[in-house]
Specification:
heterodimer, A: alpha+beta, 3-stranded antiparallel sheet, 3 strands, B: mainly beta, two-stranded antiparallel sheet, 2 helices, globular
């Protein structure tokens, strides 16, 4: 791991188009600003770790567990037969991304 | 069009026959299961749940549900990177699933809205994305009153 010392308002540059700035240091907390192209996603490491942990817990489920859930959803919430698991090219789907509906 | 079928070992139902078009490739695997890439999407005998069965490890399977059933207000908000990875930049052709966790205390059954599965049904290419909107929880409880 490359370790660099930086002061407030100093930056590091990663590759051609990513910059990380130290915006503020207060006690044991550092506020970082990240400048990156639109297509580069930035996540907190904890999110990866938590999803990983949740996947491991989810993998423990078995058929007996699931059978006990029958009736959890009323019949009218069922997906239509056209949405069967087997991908069906003739079905355009109703789950497409709905952009610009964030609650900002 | 003739459908190629194939037999696989599944965790919930033992040996079953599936159609080739049910097979889905996760180039990056799932978080925590990065070395498992090939799965089959199977209808469960308990609708509206599905199984995502790994093809290399019969003991590895996940229970899935359509997130819009449990959270009608759910909005898929993922990065361009994630959409690009499943070759669905405009979000078309996408099936969206949420992984279900059933703990010993069944009142705590939840599904993961923070890490949705994106499946391009035409390319049969999939990826576990990370929601950019933090309000969608990793543990979204399916039973009312749980986790409050």
């Amino acid at each position: 791991m490359l370790i660099l010392s930086r002061k407030v308002n100093e930056r590091i540059v990663i590759g051609d188009d990513i910059e990380v700035a130290v915006v503020e240091i207060r006690g044991d907390q550092v506020k970082l600003g990240i400048i990156a192209p639109q297509n580069v996603t930035v996540h907190r490491r904890e999110v990866f770790d938590q999803i990983q942990e949740e996947n491991r817990a989810a993998a423990m489920g078995d058929a007996a567990d699931l059978a006990k859930l029958s009736g959890l959803f009323p019949a009218d919430t069922m997906i239509s037969p056209g949405d069967s698991a087997a991908p069906d090219p003739s079905d355009s789907g109703d789950q497409r991304k709905r952009p610009d509906q964030s609650d900002s | 069009m003739t459908m190629a079928t194939r037999e696989i070992e599944s965790k919930p139902y033992g040996r079953i026959s599936i159609q080739e078009q049910q097979i889905i490739h996760f180039p990056r695997g799932l978080f925590g299961f990065e070395d498992r890439h090939d799965y089959a999407l199977i209808d469960s005998t308990t609708p509206p749940f599905y199984w995502l069965q790994n093809l290399d490890d019969p003991e590895l399977a996940f229970i899935l549900i359509n997130p819009y059933i449990v959270a009608p207000e759910y909005v898929l908000d993922v990065s361009e990177d994630d959409l690009h990875a499943v070759e669905s930049e405009d979000g078309s052709e996408l099936l969206v699933f949420s992984i279900v966790t059933i703990p010993a205390d069944r009142s705590q059954i939840s599904c993961n809205l923070q890490g949705p599965l994106l499946i391009n049904r035409r390319a049969r290419l999939a990826r576990q994305a990370i929601s950019l909107d933090q309000r969608w929880e990793i543990k979204h409880y399916l039973t009312s009153g749980a986790g409050a």
